[in-house]
Amino acid sequence: MRVPLSWLREYVDLPATETGRDVQAKLISAGLEVETVEQLGADIKGPLVVGQVLTIEELEGFKKPIRFCTVDVGQANGTGEPQEIVCGARNFTVGDKVVVVLPGGVLPGGFEISARKTYGKVSHGMICSSDELGMGDDGSQGIIVLPPETEVGADAIELLELVDEVLDIAVTANRGDCLSIRGVARETAIAYGLPLRDPALLDVPAANDFGYPVRVDDPLGCDRFTARTVSGLDPEARSPIWLQRRLQKAGMRPISLAVDVTNYVMLELGQPLHAYDRARVQGTIGVRRAKEGEEITTLDGVKRTLHAEDLVITDERGPIGLAGVMGGAHTEIDDTEGTTTDVVIEAAHFDPVSVARTARRHKLTSEAARRFERGVDPQAAAAAAQRTVDLLVLLAGGTADAGVTEVVTPSAPRTITVPADHPDKVAGVVYGRETVVRRLQEIGCDVSGQDELTVTVPSWRPDLADPNDLAEEVIRLEGYENLPSTLPRLPSGRGLTRRQRLHRRVGRALAGAGYVETPTYPFLAEKVFDQFGLDADDPARRVVRLVNPLSDEEPALRTMLLPGLLGALRRNDGRGSHDLALFETGLVFHPREEQRTAARLPVDRRPTDEELAGLAAALPEQPRHVAVVLAGAREQTGWWGKGRPADWADAVEAARIVAREAGAGLTVRKGAYGPWHPGRCAELTVVVDGTEQVVGHAGELHPRVLKTLGLPARTCAMELNLDLLERVGNDLPQAPGISTFPVATQDVALVVDKAVPAADVEAALREGAGELLESIRLFDLYENAEQLGEGRKSLAYALRFRAPDRTLTVDEASAARDAAVALAAERTGAVLRS
């Protein structure tokens, strides 16, 4: 919201010495975010005057049209003689009043004006456009043409109000009242302790039966509709300079008198209005929900198909406007034809949620919708309509019709009961009842009661809904900077939770293994499940959908980390980084079977364990996962030798790294799931309460998935449920056993069917070898049908035996090896390779 300081001073008698910077500091202290203070016209220097064009000579022989003009500037040039000026603009004629800067003047940007020879003539000054004066877009092309009644020789700096300060305020979603000069003036008056001249305090005639007919069929969507009519307007009337300049300073472009007046009143009072050409409205104006498939062409010239939830303004033909968003083209006041003499003024109050949803559904933003969706004062509608009528009568010579239409759905004022010391408890500062009551009254509340206050909220503050909102008002007006800085007293001996410790260890371990942590957004598009090839009944497809997603393309919370992580890999690969190893640890979200509504937690005390448990039960299940993705080279080629590309084994090894940090026993076996290549996918399992349970997958992604997602060839990935690993693991550091006795190494090669997993063979060897086995490692896989037989493979293991209290004999090591081989043969059908 752009607020000219000159406009603000109309409603608050600020000290003459107060600058925009001073007001900015006061408003920031009161909680408003004043981003900048723009100094308009600070570098403009006169003489800048009004001149009248006396003659125009067209200069020939140049590439573009050039005119040599004589301009009467009165006594501003010291001689009274006509000023000779060369100008290339063509939107003015002899007799027009224009703005002239004379030699010695300075325009915005430090552009000094002097007499100079150009196009064979000497130009003593310049005829100015709005851009050259820093006025912004006035809707015209070329030179500023002033009204005929403007006095020749008058100071144009004062006439055009070129020198001013404009406060640019970033209004938060809860402070819709500050999207108006009225609201900012109220905050300024409170900050300075000065009285406010409320522009909404107008004498408004009572409703009668002579007004324009209006019918409201949806009182929940529109609880107030005021209609006024003005007749006999001069169709040639134009907005005066002061009105145009205020609109320009506030960031709006002047269009036509009727539209400019409605925009002016909207900026002044915060109430959006709409003016209809009465001759184009047929019959009763109505308010209802749209019929599915109805169409309307809005003022921006776009034909829109309406949704059944859209609230629309209608006449006998159908929709003539999107309520609270934008009017229709069929009832527009057409300034180009100059035929509109009678207008109907609409000032209504619409449901904020309905307006917001309509604006987003049609991707249509407007100043009206911006205000309605943040909350508009419903009591200001009649005053805004009256203010609009008064300005149209004053500026266009019209007549206000006696009829006043007002359709109102009765509603009681909102009251809040709050303990007088509640702000004290929230802030940790003793304000006292007197201060609390005074501050609440300053913002417009009616307050009664002693220890228990009954507060009636003003109509312009729909954001005040509970005691905490009132406490915030007291605290911000007393000054956030006056709150003491108090460090909380933390209970000793808690530290990090087991889950937090595991999260940190896993991150450090993966980073140490060469992976780069890449946090991604927790949102996804459900089409990714089809791209991953997940079954229709896969649990990952059950998502939590957001009511207000940041992007319509990603409306759901993620149930797996890979979509976001693969997207990061694709973007980096597209930017030239082809050798990638990325990882992420983060939450995934699964909906609960039973949907609950979360209770609002208190802010003046710590929530109880029961309240926190109730809040947690209303949230989706949020297990923590860890995932990695790899592409390109895992080891680089260099002078030291040949490198190698990343493959499925690296993804499996990443899973083993995570499992080691969790202290969990991870079993790796052949699997097939979703986006992974069925022949290069490892299923990762752990034993939970005596039952083997899948905890994740790792391997190379399917070529079809790579092509669909635009990923590099042979991309590999892994994802694990980190919470499940934590549950079965042991986070106590395990110190390695150190023995002074030598190790005994035995190698064994076993031939098994190709279908037998190496993990099963290893498990049998480990169990059969007994307690003397220190470690086991698979170091060779050999397949040869001629030597081993069809469908057979050879697995070679290195077994290390050691006793803690003695040196093992050859017989003891051999006996342990034989026992291991025997159990492997019994369980997997393995035979020693000869």
TrEMBL record:
Q: Which gene holds the coding sequence for this protein? A: pheT
The UniProt record lists the TRNA-binding domain at: 42-157
CDD domains linked: PheRS_beta_core (cd00769), tRNA_bind_bactPheRS (cd02796)
Cross-referenced PANTHER family, in alphabetical order?
PHENYLALANINE--TRNA LIGASE BETA SUBUNIT (PTHR10947:SF0), PHENYLALANYL-TRNA SYNTHETASE BETA CHAIN AND LEUCINE-RICH REPEAT-CONTAINING PROTEIN 47 (PTHR10947)
What assembly does the database describe for this protein? Tetramer of two alpha and two beta subunits.
Tell me the compartments it is located in: Cytoplasm
What NCBIfam families has UniProt attached to this entry? pheT_bact
Query: Where does the record place the B5 domain?
Result: 411-485
EC number(s) per entry: 6.1.1.20
Q: How is the cofactor bound?
A: Binds 2 magnesium ions per tetramer.
Q: Where is the FDX-ACB domain?
A: 739-833
Q: What is the lineage of its organism?
A: Bacteria, Bacillati, Actinomycetota, Actinomycetes, Kitasatosporales
Q: Reaction catalysed by this chain? A: tRNA(Phe) + L-phenylalanine + ATP = L-phenylalanyl-tRNA(Phe) + AMP + diphosphate + H(+)
UniProt entry keywords in alphabetical sequence: Aminoacyl-tRNA synthetase, ATP-binding, Cytoplasm, Ligase, Magnesium, Metal-binding, Nucleotide-binding, Protein biosynthesis, RNA-binding, tRNA-binding
Cofactor requirement: Mg(2+)
Looking up SUPFAM superfamilies in the UniProt record yields: Anticodon-binding domain of PheRS (SSF54991), Class II aaRS and biotin synthetases (SSF55681), Nucleic acid-binding proteins (SSF50249), PheT/TilS domain (SSF56037), Putative DNA-binding domain (SSF46955)
The domain of life is Bacteria
Which residues are recorded as binding Mg(2+)? 463, 469, 472-473
Protein name per UniProt:
Phenylalanine--tRNA ligase beta subunit
Q: Which GO terms describe its molecular function?
A: ligase activity
- Give the chief site where it resides: cytoplasm
Belongs to which family? Answer: Belongs to the phenylalanyl-tRNA synthetase beta subunit family. Type 1 subfamily.
InterPro entries to which the protein is assigned, alphabetical: aa-tRNA-synth_II/BPL/LPL (IPR045864), B3/B4_tRNA-bd (IPR005146), DNA-bd_dom_put_sf (IPR009061), Fdx_antiC-bd (IPR005121), Fdx_antiC-bd_sf (IPR036690), NA-bd_OB-fold (IPR012340), Phe-tRNA-ligase_IIc_bsu (IPR045060), Phe-tRNA-ligase_IIc_bsu_bact (IPR004532)
Source organism of this protein record: Streptomyces thermoalcalitolerans
